[in-house]
Amino acid sequence: MGKYFGTDGFRGEANINLTVEHAYKIGRFIGWYFSRDHHAKIVIGKDTRRSGDMLESGIVSGILASGADAYLLHVTTTPSVSYIIKKDGFDCGVMISASHNPYYDNGIKLLNSKGEKIEADVEALIEEYIDKETSDIPYSRKTEIGKMVDHSDGKEEYLEHLVRSFGSEIKGIRIGIDCSNGSASALAPKLFGKLGADVLVINNEPDGININDKCGSTHIEALKNFVAENKLDVGFAFDGDADRCLAIDEKGREVDGDMIMFICGKYLKERGRLNGNTVVTTVMSNIGLYKALEKEGINSSTTDVGDKYVSERMVSENYSLGGEQSGHIIFSEFASTGDGMLTALMVLEAMSEKQASLGALADEVNIYPQLLKNIRVKNKKEALSNEKVQKAVAEVEKELSDNGRILVRMSGTEPLIRVMVEAQTDDICAKNVDRVIEVIKSEGLEE
Question: Is residue 99 annotated as a catalytic residue, yes or no?
Answer without folding.
Answer: yes
